[in-house]
Amino acid sequence: MDKSTFEERKVINGSMHGSLKHDSAHKHVTGAADYIDDLPEPAGLLHGALGLSDRAHAEIAGIDLSAVKAYPGVVWVFTAKDIPGLNDTSSNGMHDEPLLADAKVEFHGQPIFAVIAETRDAARRAARLAKIDYRDLPHWSDIDGALANGAPLVYEPMTLKRGEPETEMANAKHRIKAQMRIGGQEHFYLESHIAMAIPGEDDEVAVWSSTQHPSEIQHIVGHVLNIPSNAVTVNVRRMGGGFGGKETQGNQFAALAAVAAKKLGRAIKFRPDRDEDMAATGKRHDFLVDYEIGFDDDGRIHAVDATYAARCGFSSDLSGPVTDRALFHADSSYFYPHVHLVSKPLKTHTVSNTAFRGFGGPQGMVGGERFIEEIAYALGKDPLEVRRANFYGQPGSGRTLTPYHQEVEDNIIHRIVDELEEASDYQARRSAIMEFNRSSRFIRKGIALTPVKFGISFTMTAFNQAGALVHIYQDGSIHLNHGGTEMGQGLYTKVAQVLADSFQVDIDRVKITATTTGKVPNTSATAASSGSDLNGMAAFDAARQIKERLIAFAVEKWSVAAEEIQFLPNRVRVGEMEIAFPDFIRQAYFARVQLSAAGFYKTPKIHWDRKAGRGTPFYYFSYGAACSEVSIDTLTGEYLVDRTDILHDVGRSLNPAIDIGQVEGAFVQGMGWLTTEELWWDNKGRLRTHAPSTYKIPLASDRPKIFKVRLAEWSENAEATIGRSKAVGEPPFMLSISVLEALSMAVASVADYRVCPRLDAPATPERVLMAVERLKGM
């Protein structure tokens, strides 16, 4: 192999579709990665703390802050009346989420005032000295309480309907009517919320925020200060995790810091501790699903009627889109000939729930898999057999239309499941497990193979756009900036790979820079698994513009045809000669070629009519499947996840190493949601699971003892995405449903698989034990 061939192979492997390490991986493990709290503190920096309510629902009858103001080191204490602009941080224009509560509080832990002091400790201690008089009002903190009290909805409900479910349900040979509870989840990012604001001249303010949505922070700060967006610059280099919890929830901390910074003319930092962060910020929505399903002797679904009620908290936040997406995924991977689905986003006196990885899709999908489970136990069939009987078909089969009237045109779930069934040896292991359960007195095992079909795109069509800014400097080095944010998922690395591939240069020639609203405006949140799709294509567009100018320059300078110009690894071929990339760029600069471009991308084909419940909200679907095996102790309800095999579809992966990491992490996080992570409010509306001591995320020791993850390397996106890849952030989260289903089978063995255990989530050891005891009596 000659030197040029080796160099060419090196660049191709080191750019798009190559398994490159995360650009900050070495910094993460050595502690060298700078987060906001690691930045050098500006001279005169002051610290902020929140004054939180200790009532779930009450009028504020009186407030005495004299002791707070008198505490040593306190510089300023402010309330709602001190906000110069709009006292609102709502992300959807409904103006139902005050920055600071004024006349009334609507959840325990709601911010009422803020303290600014010389030290963080002084601010926190002073905040606890307030004397507030309340007139208590009726409150409810869960879905049952909301339903019993006729609670209002925080957002207009959505209905999806196809066929004639009203009449066709009665025509089904078998019918089951039941209910399922699905718990919420705390994001538990490693870095809690944090914001630092530095005042500038005139009306300007610069904000450093741990946020997935810098443009929204920019807008909110502008509204709160009553200044235009062009006066606010928001910067984000990286977050220590986000998972959706930093899509809207960072608004209040950034806005409070900005208000104080402009008032006092000094830099301000807000960093709540873990307890305050968990009490004052939103979580995954928990759901109560009431369902009726009709089916035939073969287990094929004929009709579905289901209502998805959600605990949304005191304000709307993102509850409308979250409950919408739950309905979009209530079909899981299955065709429902006749279907009626309704969302019910209920107001509760708890912190307003928000985005979380999957954004309602996991809750909808868990409900859909419960339908399959009900049918399987009612008919005495293997749930996998029932799943296959109900899968969406191929185009022309008459079984491709979703409840929202989008055709499933890219269906590969059959192949995914078939390959995983064989690779995991599912059938033989299931037979062995059933044999084991017949003779085992206390330990029972279960196994389940579950599919994933997840729609990719923001369901709000306008959010499906992105921008990127690319500069090439005279020495051939490249500067990249785009609207996506890095929360550990490797987005910066992937987009840099796109750029390196476009110009055929080594990845280390591309400088990744912090996301800032001062470079790329009007960006969408890094959410909905769209970060690589949108920002990768925007960067590709910027590269295309610059390359077109460079080709035109070369055509004119060397009198060659455009077809004779080729970008090769670290060099450019022009006719018969080759020029090193830096030399080529330098010559273009002296010829006054513009070496900068703003790229833009908007997702094609998508449209959505929410009122009609019809459209094409998703550009494509991502698929996957997981097979999990568990063991439970029927005396205690404790269990182990013995083995998990995963086959997941990411199209033609932009970076297989990063994508496999995303699949593994999503699965374990989803497993935590469905097994150990339980949110609990007491009868006073206080969140009692507000710290690691009371809220149990999975540990490394909780992961499957045997954990095999493969990407479907044969898959390639049928749509023109960047590099024909598919999204990877959210879809693999739902692979964890296989653990819940496997636990259900283990419990069902107690009653010889005759009864659906109806195991609610999270399936904590207590719930598993109660289900075992319940089935023993059947």
From TrEMBL:
InterPro entries: Ald_Oxase/Xan_DH_a/b, Ald_Oxase/Xan_DH_a/b_sf, Ald_Oxase/xanthine_DH-like, AldOxase/xan_DH_MoCoBD1, AldOxase/xan_DH_MoCoBD2, AldOxase/xan_DH_Mopterin-bd_sf, Xanthine_DH_Mopterin-bd_su. Gene3D superfamilies: Aldehyde oxidase/xanthine dehydrogenase, a/b hammerhead, Aldehyde oxidase/xanthine dehydrogenase, molybdopterin binding domain. It comes from the Bacteria. Residues 30-138 form the Aldehyde oxidase/xanthine dehydrogenase a/b hammerhead domain. SUPFAM superfamilies: CO dehydrogenase molybdoprotein N-domain-like, Molybdenum cofactor-binding domain. SMART domains: Ald_Xan_dh_C. The keyword Iron applies. Its EC number is 1.17.1.4. Pfam families: Ald_Xan_dh_C, MoCoBD_1, MoCoBD_2. GO terms for molecular function: 2 iron, 2 sulfur cluster binding; iron ion binding; molybdenum ion binding; xanthine dehydrogenase activity. Keywords: 2Fe-2S, Iron, Iron-sulfur, Metal-binding, Molybdenum, Oxidoreductase. Its cofactor is FAD; Mo-molybdopterin cytosine dinucleotide; Mo-molybdopterin; [2Fe-2S] cluster. It is an enzyme of class 1 (oxidoreductase). Belongs to the xanthine dehydrogenase family. This is Xanthine dehydrogenase large subunit. It comes from Rhizobium leucaenae.
